[in-house]
Write a structure and sequence with these properties.
- Keywords: Cytoplasm, Methyltransferase, RNA-binding, rRNA processing, S-adenosyl-L-methionine, Transferase.
- It is an enzyme of class 2 (transferase).
- Belongs to the class I-like SAM-binding methyltransferase superfamily. rRNA adenine N(6)-methyltransferase family. RsmA subfamily.
- GO terms for molecular function: 16S rRNA (adenine(1518)-N(6)/adenine(1519)-N(6))-dimethyltransferase activity; RNA binding.
- This protein is an alpha/beta fold and 292 residues long.
- Helices cover 41% and strands 17% of the residues.
- The protein folds into two domains: 200 residues, Rossmann fold, CATH 3.40.50; 67 residues, Helicase, Ruva Protein, domain 3 (Orthogonal Bundle).
- The protein contains twelve helices and nine strands.
- A seven-stranded mixed beta sheet has the order 4-3-2-5-6-9-7, with helices on both faces. Strands 1-8 form a two-stranded antiparallel sheet.
- Helix 5 packs parallel to helix 7, helix 6 crosses helix 7 and helix 8 crosses helix 12.
- Bound molecules: S-adenosylmethionine.
- The site of S-adenosylmethionine has 23 residues, from strand 1, helix 3 and strand 3.
- S-adenosylmethionine binds next to strand 1, helix 3 and strand 3.
């Protein structure tokens, strides 16, 4: 009988000492403007990677690799990692960090120096988005990437905990808003956990939340995404008002808004916070079918 193969030793991840040393080497002082809070805890990285359910054949898009904490964990789990970083000093350092900590996997990394809110082309087609996102731009980044990269089928992002609650909220919930409805256009979003402040350097003042998403078909409608999103923006710009009042500007008058809402099967006295993305699509469609 042969002895069972010993399971491979876990690969080292970046802890507080390595992160501070790397930052010092390149003279980086984390900035709030770019949401630079680096993860200094290997267990948190393992937890994120496990929750992301990345398949070994996948190409993962990572936004904001920073000093590489999550990048190393993703390289262990995926076939390829495309890392989009806005900070030129961090982007330039990443390949050598990966070469030092994962020499065998260094060829599986592409670093793209770019603003993730503007990127429209990547060196490989990503199927998953996994990122510890810069907090001030987390929602627009996710929406931009879901719009421009239809190859993204699923993902897991770390954002401010209250933003995570907004992204996953359903109609009728206090936290339901534009991020929830627009996110639901592309995907099913689910909260996948809360992360404390002490696993970061520097430590933020608030907890972080994990949001897992799976892409799905958008609602079937003749209205375009832009047309549906215009209704959502108008409804939540005045979220305390009835839809009849909130959509008056968009429809060309309150009476017109009421006509579209009735045609869409939506109560004109309801508020935008109680209807789902399918109802928003029906409202947008009511307007375009009246004008064709
Ligand atoms: N992934 C690293 C980690 O977990 O330690 C760093 C995460 S840190 C919260 C956010 C990272 O996003 C920083 O490296 C920052 O420079 C980068 N960043 C900020 N705004 C960005 C943008 N618009 N596009 C791409 N990267 C951005």
């Amino acid at each position: 009988m042969t002895a069972p193969e010993p399971s491979p030793a876990p690969q080292p991840l970046l802890g507080a000492t390595e992160i501070r040393r790397l930052a010092e080497e390149i003279g980086v002082r984390p900035t709030k403007t770019l949401g630079q809070n680096f993860v200094i805890d290997g267990n948190t990285i393992r937890r994120i990677v496990a929750a992301a359910k990345v398949d070994p054949t996948e190409t993962v898009l990572e936004v904001g690799p920073g000093l590489g904490s999550l990048t190393l964990g993703l390289l262990d789990a995926a076939a390829r990692v495309v890392a989009v970083e806005i900070d030129p000093v961090l982007a330039a350092k990443l390949p050598s960090t990966v070469a030092a900590f994962r020499p065998a996997l260094a060829g599986n990394l592409d670093v793209v120096l770019s603003d993730a809110m503007r990127v429209t082309e990547l060196p490989a087609e990503p199927t998953a988005l996994v990122a510890n996102l810069p907090y001030n731009v987390a929602v627009p980044v996710v929406l931009h990437l879901l719009e421009h990269f239809p190859s993204l089928k699923h993902g897991l992002v770390m954002v401010q905990d209250e933003v995570a609650d907004r992204m996953v909220a359903g109609p009728g919930s206090k936290t339901y808003g534009v991020p929830s409805v627009k996110g639901a256009w592309y995907s099913q979003m689910r909260k996948a956990g809360v992360i404390g402040m002490n696993v970061f350097w520097p430590a933020p003042k608030i907890s972080s939340g994990l949001v897992e998403f799976t892409r799905r078909e958008p609602p079937k409608t003749h209205a375009s995404r832009e047309e549906v999103f215009a209704v959502i923006d108008a409804a939540f710009a005045q979220r305390r008002k009835t839809l009849r009042a909130a959509l008056a500007g968009w429809a060309g008058g309150a009476a017109q808004a009421e006509t579209y809402l009735r045609q869409a099967g939506v109560d004109p006295s309801a508020r935008g916070e109680v209807i789902d993305v399918i109802a928003y699509a029906r409202i947008a469609e009511a307007k375009i079918s009246a004008t064709v």
